[in-house]
Write a structure and sequence with these properties.
Layout lengths: L1 H9 L3 H15 L8 E7 L2 E9 L8 E8 L8 H15 L4 E7 L3 H9 L3 E8 L6 E9 L4
Parallel strand pairs: 3-4
Antiparallel strand pairs: 1-2, 2-3, 4-6, 5-6
Length: 146
Amino acid sequence: MHGTWYARECGFGQFFESKVASGVAEFTGRLAHPRNGLWSALAAGRVCGAIAIDAQDLGDGSAHLRWFIMDDSARGQGIGRRLLTEAIRFCDRHDFAEISLWTFRGLDAARRLYEDAGFRLARECPGTQWGAAVMEQRFVRHKGAG
């Protein structure tokens, strides 16, 4: 889903798809950790959305929100908002002081979801971590925000 959507909408190529695939593969080997979580939404027996919370990636006791994606067929139905809400509740139950995520400028629908959930833009800078030049953005949500 990531490879297809980001190739079509952002022109990202094989570098991005490989980065996501290797990151998800590495993460799934750590799902037994009680503070890591992965949620998916199904429609007609098919995955139409997903989100993950990685407690170990940042190494500073913060939750890292990763791989949040919705299939085009599921956009605008509130499914993404429900996935994000569940991930935040999980973080609150596990007493994370903050949740952070990296994205980039131009993903306006996702940004609205993040800001509605209490995330605030903490940093913006040019970068290429996704294999293309974009204006990267780091959003942070402190416990109790929202």
